[in-house]
Design goal:
Chain lengths: ~290, ~270
Amino acid sequence: MSLRDNRKRMLKTFFHYLRAVNAENIKEWKIELTYKPDFIRQFIEPFVYLFPYFLYGFALLGGRYSEHLRSITGISDMVAYTFIGYLFIGFLNTACWAMGFSLRKEQWFGTLETIFVAPVPRWVYVAGMALHSTCHQGLIMLIQAVVIATFFAIVLQMSGIFMALSIVLLMLLGLYGLGIIVAGLTIALKQWWVVSEALSTLIVVVTPIAYPLAVLPLVLRKMSMFLPTTYGIIGVRHFLLGEELVIGLPTIILRLFLILIVWLTFGMIVFLVMDRYGRKKGSLSIY
Amino acid sequence: MWVIVEEVRKSIRILLAYPAEVVFWIFSPLLWVIPLVFQGKALVGAFSSTPFGSLAGTDEFIPYVLIGAIISTYMFSAVWSMGNSFRDETYYGTLEHILSSPARPAYILIGKGLYNSILSTSFVIVQLLICVFIFGLDITLVKILPIFMFLLLLIVGLYGIGFMAAALTLLVKEAHGLLHMFEYVLFLFSPIRYPVEVNPITKAISVFIPLTYALNALRGLLLNIEFNFLKNSMILLGIDCVLIPLGLVVFHYVEKRTKTRGTLSDY
């Protein structure tokens, strides 16, 4: 077979996979739109989730601004600081819940085995879920950002938007690795939500979402250095609100690159091992 | 009576098949407090706040949110576990078998409620013991009886809400998201994380939520904050008297409706 034929075949396979990824994305939109109350709920929920953090801050401060926060981060507006953190941590839900949940959901629907015999590799399926989740979560976040920023009159540095989005992209790719790990563990552990919830709770604790790294104990601070969310959140807050950086910008970008390579590779390995384990043990259809 | 006992036994056997879940439910409410502790430290630079004290009756916000987190276990149990109990039966493929058995669905529902109450109370006891031995929470023996009285009054009211949540699931099927949101609404409008007096809207709506009175009373007992014992217990009792019959009636109506329309087995 000539080199040209080889390239043609590879290209054909690539487009075949892309079609499968998109088919998975479309399928998810269709399923979600079938349950309309739940679909609408997903756009309202982030607001209801966020307000307790604001109100807790108001109760502690007796107002919106904190001198202590300004002394350690350069930002005194508690609402803006908390909002940016929780806005972008929304992608953690994409990884832990939407991607991790995907296989368990297919099992509940009784379609897992059907999907697994389709003539595409397993990662194509997870990539489809990732595409769908990113589009869906992105839309939710956009609405949330516009409404909250308007309601609380939060002024963002628009000049930093491109850099902020670039950092979010790197963080997101790293989180996909986590999503793939959770999806893989679901095959073996079945009770997926415990894995998802435990992981996301730990990440939320360690990531400087509503507080800077400075307030974390040393052990947790060290742990946070291995998470893409740490660099993602502090980077985005620096570009959008002007938070003083405790880690240099080139270091943030370099570490995000390293984390995404390690997490994605590790995620794929875990997924493939678990997939093989599930089929070998015959536990794919076990509840 | 046997139906209720068998339902509890069956649920315990299913739970024991997933032991990770038990560990998760014991520790997660305590873990959820940690971000609030760090957020507080970042905002005020200490573990006490005077503005917080003027609203909550105590300057120290850590014990305040810790008690809120522990007691919210009941809220999760009532809304999430009860709401999903019949949805789980759908996933297991056993919903039709259960509802077509010669047992009244209300007994099955009460069985599920009893199982969740026993489970949540065990979790709360372990969490309180962790707080006593690790965080130095002070509980004198004389307080135990009133604590259990308020917990009981809270559980009854919340399971009235739980029965309605179970009915909602039969109606809209994929209700886990809606249940989650309902949880967040309760978080927003009841004094779990902060005193509701911080905002006039949260203060006004919290009046209708049983968690408000139970948390006021339990924090009063555990943190020695002044509260009206008689008023809080009578209001909780009144709410219970309304919510339990209401929950059962709503469930009965929805269950009948799904059977009449033939949507019981719909996904």
